[in-house]
Amino acid sequence: MAAGSISPQKLYGVPIALMFSEGAPRLIDANVTIPRLQDGDPGHIVVEAYPGMLARSIIGRRSYKQDTKKKQTQDQRTARLQLLSALRDGDAEARYSFAIEASEALCHNPGGDHLDALLCAIQAAWAWRNRENGFGGA
Q1: CB count, 10 Å around CB of 111?
Q2: Alpha helices by DSSP H, the chain
Q3: pTM of the model
Q4: What value does the mean pLDDT take over residues 42-68?
Q5: Can you give the pLDDT at residue 76?
Q6: How many other CB atoms are there within 10 angstroms of residue 126's CB atom?
Q7: Max CA separation in the chain (angstroms)
Q8: Are 97 and 122 in contact (CB under 8 A)?
Q9: Which of 45, 74, 108, 127 could pair with 135 in a Cys bridge, judged by C-beta atoms 3.0 to 4.6 Å apart?
Q10: CA 76 to CA 66: how far, in whole Å?
Q11: How far apart are CA 3 and CA 135, in angstroms?
Q12: C-alpha dist (Å) from residue 132 to 44, 50, 127
């Protein structure tokens, strides 16, 4: 896949297909607009952010997060710090035309949830800036 992600048909481990089968009907029932997929309430727009895709574009396939305490490493922490540093030092501005100001504290969470939230916010902000152009969709 272009995003280097897990197959959406996967039913074991991270059950992407099960999450989709739970989430998709809820989005339809909520009458939200999903650009290029569903015309719903134009005041409620849903876009998907994929933090791993942005992370890989900056640090490659290096692991930067891990939920299992035994598998957490200093290399992952270093990767989180390098990822954040690249974003703050102009990578985001070069890619998305806006600067990022964020605390290094985002990197203290070994599970990567805090850093992933920033990566999702960056993608959502970019999509919003491109709303007149289909939210950046192809």
Answers
A1: 14
A2: 16-29, 51-59, 74-86, 92-96, 113-129
A3: 0.82
A4: 93
A5: 98
A6: 19
A7: 46
A8: no
A9: 127
A10: 8
A11: 18
A12: 15, 21, 10
